[in-house]
Specification:
Helix content: 25-40%
Radius of gyration: 19 Å
Number of strands: 13
Largest sheet: 7 strands, parallel
Strand order of the largest sheet: 3-2-1-4-5-6-11
CATH architecture: 3-Layer(aba) Sandwich
Shape: globular
CATH class: Alpha Beta
Structural class: alpha/beta
Number of domains: 1
CATH topology: Rossmann fold
Length: 303
């Protein structure tokens, strides 16, 4: 594969992962086309940007035929999990997460490109304590967001022969909203917080994930992978404690509570979000750094 001629097409380029992925690609000298809803964002000056509605198949096909990318990384998604439960939003969620994914896969097949689909631990029901492997197929999403992301996976596997599906969890980065930013914001006005301690997983730092996504796309080791940062499995409570510790906010008291004590959200969350990443190592890819190290870099503004 001639890396210097490999062209990338990114959907959801305005999002938390998309923006870091564009930064990673341009810093490594790859030609890339960023696509999203809305105006071009600051930081995308080194790549071409187009406004694209992925729910419009003709628009998707025309865009891919125009640029003929060798690799398509599909970051666009409806990720507001609770809002996805509202009846007035479900058609929109389905259109983006399922129809949009089908459109990209169909157009991708026409130009013989390789697609990477970003998926989630939410496709599983979160029972037990064993880490989910890429080969597990006992899918049972607990919420509508998870159901649509699973349908997206099915579409990719049905339409394409050459693809990567990368499942992630607990995403945080410099752009957009995430748990770390929420904790730091709440700490500005509160000295005591209640955080659930019975949902277990590991965070995923978007700059680290972006490096991995580029690395796997320089190979033809197609298939399904799990990718979160390394480090011990933790609860949201553990994560909050480490955030305040590293941020020097020792005055903040974090109280561990069960999901039941915390109160029901619109969308059910899985208790077990552990993802087994050993397939990455077996396939020759570098595992992501520890989440503690990733958090330190996030707080210090270094990737």
């Amino acid at each position: 594969m001639q890396e210097d001629k490999l062209k990338f097409f990114i959907t959801g380029a305005n999002g938390q992962l998309g923006r870091d992925l564009i930064t990673e690609l341009t810093s490594r000298g790859f030609e890339c086309i960023a696509s999203g809803r809305g105006e071009k964002f600051s930081g995308s000056e080194n790549c071409e940007y187009i406004s694209l509605d992925i729910t419009d198949y003709n628009a998707v096909e025309n865009a891919l035929k125009q640029f003929m990318p060798g690799r398509i990384i599909h970051c666009a998604a409806w990720t507001a999990v609770d809002a996805a439960e509202d009846e007035e939003n479900k058609n929109k969620v389905f259109a983006v997460n399922v129809t949009g994914t089908k459109n990209l896969a169909r157009a991708c097949k026409k130009i013989n490109s390789v697609m990477t689909y970003i998926s989630t631990d939410y496709i599983f029901d979160g029972t037990g304590s064993r880490a989910w492997t890429p080969e597990d197929e006992n899918f049972a999403p607990l919420n509508f967001y998870g159901k649509t992301k699973l349908e997206g996976e099915f579409a990719v596997k049905k339409i394409l022969e050459k693809f990567f599906i990368v499942r992630i969890a607990w995403v945080f980065g410099s752009h957009g909203n995430n748990f770390v930013k929420t904790m730091l914001k709440i700490a500005q006005n509160h000295d005591t917080l209640r955080v659930v301690n019975d949902q277990i997983g590991t965070p995923t730092y978007t700059p680290d994930l972006s490096r991995l996504l580029v690395d796997i796309n320089l190979t033809e080791k197609f298939g399904i992978y799990h990718a979160t940062n390394e480090g011990n499995y933790i609860s949201w409570y553990d994560f909050a404690c480490e955030i305040f510790s590293q941020a020097g906010l020792d005055n903040i008291k974090v109280i561990p509570v069960s999901s039941a004590e915390y109160g029901a959200a619109k969308a059910k969350r899985p208790f077990n979000s552990r993802l087994d990443k050993s397939k990455l190592k077996i396939s020759g890819f570098n595992l992501l750094p520890s989440w503690q190290d990733a958090l330190r870099r996030f707080l210090h503004g270094t990737n």
